Amino acid sequence: MTGRVRGWCPSLFEPMASGDGLLARVKPPLGRLSGEAARALAAASRRRGNGQLDLTHRAALQVRGLSEASLPRFQEAMLAAGLAQADPAVERRRNLVVSPLASPAGLALAIELERWIADDGALAALPSKFGFAVEAPGGDIGVQPGPQGWRIRLDGCATEGLTATPLAAVQAITRRFLALAAESAEPSRRMAGLLRRHGPEAIFTGTGARLVAAAAPPPPRPSRAGRLGSDGGFALGLPFGAFTAEDLGLAANLAERFADGGLRTSPWRALILAGVSDEAALANAAQVAGFVVDPHDPRLSIIACTGAPGCASAHAPTRADAAFIAARRPPGLVHLSGCAKGCAHPAPAAFTLVAAADGYGLVRDGRAADPPERRGLTLPEAVQLLAAEPAEIP
Fold first, then answer.
1. Which spans in the chain are helix H?
2. What is the pLDDT at residue 117?
3. CB count, 10 Å around CB of 252?
4. Rounded to an integer, what distance in angstroms lies between the CA atom of residue 191 and that of residue 153?
């Protein structure tokens, strides 16, 4: 069971061909959209594409159904809405995930990072999958407040007691990545690969960061809905991360009626509203609009890629199949992948169903690329196995 890994991520100026046309990623600055910008994106997606969007696990908005003819006008609309940088090289490397619930200090750091990423031409050498995260899951470098000030985490390694500012430490670590990657015969596409090859000391030494022992953080919840903490945050859950241009317009309306007027993207397959004034009224209106608002909704426990026919690599309509499975409330986290690449969820899941030409393969506690213990399953057969206790699965 194989899938062709392309090794790069699409951007606004470097779209990727898929089963339903070209797809391009829009990365709102700091993960925030005004109502006006959200409506501009919705209108351009509907007019220049097929009106179908995805929210990726890097909090980017993926617009589907574009064409060679319509792409330039879509790009112009995104620049006019302030949702992209005009320089394609800057837009390619602008991979910064900012938590929608980031503190004021975290947001200030993110602004500094965004400016540096745009201004430092040397960062053009970063691979497209290299990313940064501020107080958020995901990304190769995460920066968040720790008990002794700011902490930087790289794939389970952490620093505390920085002798440099957080921005300076991130810059030094990134430059060390570029230097070590340039010396390698096979350059790493991610920080994790370089850490495995050279060890954390080679990355941290001389960066102003002190290495400390740190357990890997708990895996982030892939999907969320409803109230987020007690500070007025509310997640409009998107089933399987998919939504339409009409949905985006409805979300903007909800933000203006019940919150601070803006939308925030997230790695949790949800659009986030902040400063909610009437949570009950918002929940009712959002549910009527088709968003997931119940944090226990079974759709939040299923991750599904675009699947067929939207993805040319997929062997099954994974999102339709995911809805079928969700209606039967499966146990644990279930990942449906249209092929063995596992684009929608590179991490392990309790159950992974991988589509192939002969049906689904079942992987337990693993990734889509792992060898399946059962092959050739029909969807009803897969559902039957998921309903059984793990010990009962032959």
1. 35-48, 71-80, 88-93, 104-119, 166-183, 191-198, 200-204, 245-258, 279-288, 318-326, 379-387
2. 96
3. 24
4. 11
**Distances from the Cα of 26 to the Cαs of 38, 94, 95, 227, in angstroms?**
11, 10, 11, 26
- In the sheet with 149-154, reading across from the earlier edge strand, the strands are 96-98, 132-134, 141-146, 149-154, 157-160, 210-212
Burial class (CB in 10 A: 0-12, 13-18, 19+), 162: buried
Query: Rounded to an integer, what distance in angstroms lies between the CA atom of residue 28 and that of residue 40?
Result: 12
Report pLDDT for 34: 97
| Chain length of the chain | 394
Look at residue 321 in the predicted model and tell me its pLDDT.
93
Tokens encoding 212:
């400390």
Comparing 53-62, 163-172, 355-364, which segment has the lowest mean pLDDT? 163-172
- Which residues are within 8 A (CB) of 95 and not within 5 positions of it... i.e. 6 or more apart? 9, 27, 58, 128, 129, 130, 131, 132, 139
- Sequence-distant (≥ 6) Cβ neighbours of residue 22 within 8 angstroms: 15, 16, 65, 66, 67, 68, 71
Q: What is the pLDDT of residues 232-279, one digit of tens each?
A: 799 999 999 999 999 999 999 999 999 999 999 999 999 999 999 899
DSSP classification of residue 371 = P
Average pLDDT rounded to a whole number, residues 168-181: 91
The pLDDT value recorded for residue 371 is 93
User: Are 57 and 220 contacting, i.e. CB atoms less than 8 angstroms apart?
Assistant: no
Using the predicted structure, report yes or no on whether residue 333 has a pLDDT greater than 90. no
Cβ atoms of 49 and 77 within 8 Å: the answer is: no
Contact present, 24 and 62 (Cβ < 8 Å): yes
Which of these ranges, 19-23, 92-96, 136-140, 165-169, has the smallest mean pLDDT? 136-140
Which two structure tokens, joined as six digits, stand for 324? 């079928």
Enclosing H/E stretch for 149: strand 149-154
pTM, to two decimals:
0.90
What token pair was written down for 31?
A: 């993960």
Cβ-in-10-Å burial (0-12, 13-18, 19+) of 173 comes to buried
Closest to 325 in 3D by CA, of 132, 317, 45: 317
**Closest by Cα among 308, 291, 309 to 300:** 291
pLDDT, tens digit, 9 for 90 and up, residues 286-310: 999 999 999 999 999 999 999 998 8
Q: Which two tokens stand for residue 233?
A: 């945050």
